[in-house]
């Protein structure tokens, strides 16, 4: 069984622990993520889900264990692993178009190619006509669309998303979840999506990794076989929601803040 | 896309609608002109009132604005005024250029390289609280009474604001922007060029504007001490001959030049930082 997993895993996390001084943020995490799968890391704050994502991105090194992408250990960020941040992280001095064209620019594409790629990906996220606006003139939802377009414009095989819709209002959030799935179905990537919203994770993921707290660890891995598009009022959806809520509540109680 | 619904005209703040904006700007400009006229009127009233009515102090101490204007015309006709303006401006521009280049260069180096910061920061922190004027007599000793001492003095004084704001600008670059750029494939050099520099630019520009103001501030003092030209010299020379109109004229001209340069620098700043002009459109 193990041999089979080794050959197909896009991202392998093997015995990964992370300590900050004496505090153990993550303990002995092992996960195999299949190519083009959509995985949600779900848990309350303090479960180490963002820490794990940062190690896959290459922003941090594990204290023990290894993160492998395509069989290669991760040391530092790479253009093949796009990242979308909760705080958008757009360059405020670049227009929407020039933000999206940033990756192609770094790879030495011509100005005309940069503009063409920028336009294409802005259109993909529904922002055609907003090319020349600066981030300061965009709403939160539009900023996150630009950030997603910017990550996709590099055509990475892995897309890492750190609570990308956490700062948005509920309506915008649901619209963006649907659009993200539509994009993912057309441009397959291995997506790792950090969230603390149970409903968001059930709506999006092939696989939900429920994280434990104190120390951060994997509590349970749930593989979903609900057909898409998923209906949030479907009994199977709500049953799963209730089950995960129980799991997460136990972890929140461990933190002593209820 | 719910975000992109065009706003009805009534929802746009009044100040942004073209016609009202022009009217507001005109009203604003009108108020400014009125304030200046009021100031000149009070000045004239005090000056003439004292000379002909109250005889409270020696009228030579406060000439009227018209007398100052006349002094200006006389000095311009003799060519002296232009010569002094040119001398001061040339010193300020040279000194400031050195300060700007050195301040930004050292600031960038110190801001990006920790060991250098530990080495340089304490020295700067020791020198910074000393008013640059305290070094002026020494600079005259070291560099003579010619142009060099004044240019070096301005460069020294203007260096500090440029340097400090550059270092601060670099240190306060949002780390998440660096992560974003790194995840898009930026190398260390590219991070510096495409993230650190543009992020620090607003700070650097503020420092340049402060430094330029300071250059004007100190050049006058430098020209008091040792000079045979320049607006500071004009004032000090007029003092020895008790020509108060000329002294006031020197001050007014310095004020006008500073005012004009500030407008230019603001325009340059607004253009360079045009992305900061937020407000949904």
From TrEMBL, chain A:
PROSITE patterns cross-referenced by the UniProt entry: ABC_TRANSPORTER_1, ABC_TRANSPORTER_2
Domain ABC transporter: from-to ranges: 11-238
Pfam families reported for this sequence: ABC_tran
Transmembrane feature ranges: none
GO molecular-function term, one example from the UniProt record: ATP binding
Alphabetized InterPro entries for the sequence: AAA+_ATPase, ABC_transporter-like_ATP-bd, ABC_transporter-like_CS, ABC_transporter_ATP-bind, P-loop_NTPase
UniProt keyword terms in alphabetical order: ATP-binding, Nucleotide-binding, Transport
Record family assignment: Belongs to the ABC transporter superfamily.
Protein name from the UniProt record: ABC transporter ATP-binding protein
Upper taxonomic lineage: Bacteria, Pseudomonadati, Pseudomonadota, Alphaproteobacteria, Acetobacterales
UniProtKB/TrEMBL annotation, chain B:
Residue ranges annotated for the ABC transmembrane type-1 domain, each copy included: 85-265
Principal localisation: membrane
Gene3D superfamilies named in the record: MetI-like
Annotated membrane topology: Multi-pass membrane protein
Transmembrane segments: 33-54, 92-114, 126-145, 151-170, 191-208, 214-235, 247-265
Subcellular location: Cell membrane
Superkingdom: Bacteria
InterPro entries for this protein: MetI-like, MetI-like_sf
Family according to the record: Belongs to the binding-protein-dependent transport system permease family.
Protein known as: ABC transporter permease
Annotated source species: Roseomonas populi
């Amino acid at each position: 069984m193990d041999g089979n997993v080794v050959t197909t895993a896009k991202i392998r996390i093997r015995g990964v622990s992370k300590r900050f001084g004496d505090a153990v943020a993550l303990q002995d995490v092992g996960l195999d993520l299949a190519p083009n799968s959509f995985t949600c890391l779900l848990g309350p704050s303090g479960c180490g889900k963002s820490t794990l994502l940062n190690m896959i991105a290459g922003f941090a090194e594990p204290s023990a264990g290894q993160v492998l992408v395509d069989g290669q250990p991760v040391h530092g960020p790479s253009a093949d692993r796009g990242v979308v941040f909760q705080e958008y992280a757009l360059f405020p001095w670049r227009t929407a178009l020039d933000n999206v064209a940033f990756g192609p620019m770094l790879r030495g594409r011509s100005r005309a190619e940069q503009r063409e790629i920028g336009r294409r990906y802005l259109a993909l996220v529904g922002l055609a006509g907003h090319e020349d606006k600066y981030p300061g003139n965009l709403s939160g939802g539009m900023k996150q669309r630009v950030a997603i377009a910017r990550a996709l414009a590099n055509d990475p095989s892995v897309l890492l998303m750190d609570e990308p819709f956490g700062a948005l209002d509920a309506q915008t959030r649901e619209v963006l979840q649907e659009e993200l799935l539509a994009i993912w179905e057309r441009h397959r990537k291995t997506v790792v999506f950090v969230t603390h919203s149970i409903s968001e994770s059930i709506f999006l993921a092939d696989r939900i990794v429920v994280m434990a707290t104190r120390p951060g660890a994997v509590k349970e891995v749930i593989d979903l076989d609900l057909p898409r598009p998923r209906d949030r009022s479907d009994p199977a959806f709500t049953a799963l929601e209730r089950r995960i809520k129980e799991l997460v509540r136990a972890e929140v109680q461990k933190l002593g803040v209820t | 896309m719910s975000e992109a619904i065009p706003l009805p005209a009534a929802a746009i703040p009044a100040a942004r609608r073209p016609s009202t904006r022009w009217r507001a700007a005109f009203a604003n400009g009108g108020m400014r002109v009125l304030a200046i006229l009021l100031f000149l009127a009070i000045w004239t009233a005090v000056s003439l009132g004292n000379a002909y009515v109250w005889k409270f102090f020696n009228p030579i101490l406060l000439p009227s604005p018209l007398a100052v204007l006349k002094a200006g015309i006389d000095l311009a006709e003799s060519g002296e005024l232009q010569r002094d303006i040119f001398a001061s401006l040339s010193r300020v521009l040279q000194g400031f250029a050195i300060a700007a280049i050195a301040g930004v260069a050292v600031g960038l180096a110190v801001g990006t390289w920790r060991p250098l910061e530990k080495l340089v920061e304490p020295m700067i922190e020791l020198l910074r609280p000393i008013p640059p004027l305290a070094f002026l007599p020494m600079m005259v000793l070291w560099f003579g009474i010619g142009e060099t001492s004044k240019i070096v003095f301005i460069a020294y004084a203007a260096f500090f604001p440029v340097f400090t704001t550059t270092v601060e600008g670099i240190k306060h670059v949002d780390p998440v922007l660096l992560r974003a750029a790194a995840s898009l494939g930026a190398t260390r050099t590219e991070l510096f060029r495409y993230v650190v520099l543009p992020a620090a630019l607003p700070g650097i520009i503020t420092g340049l504007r402060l430094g330029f103001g300071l250059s004007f501030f100190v050049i006058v003092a430098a020209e008091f001490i040792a000079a045979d030209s320049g607006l500071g010299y004009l004032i000090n020379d007029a003092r020895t001959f008790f020509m108060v109109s000329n002294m006031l004229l020197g001050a007014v001209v310095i004020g006008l030049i500073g005012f004009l340069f500030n407008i230019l620098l603001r325009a340059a700043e607004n253009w360079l930082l045009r992305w900061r002009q937020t407000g949904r459109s």
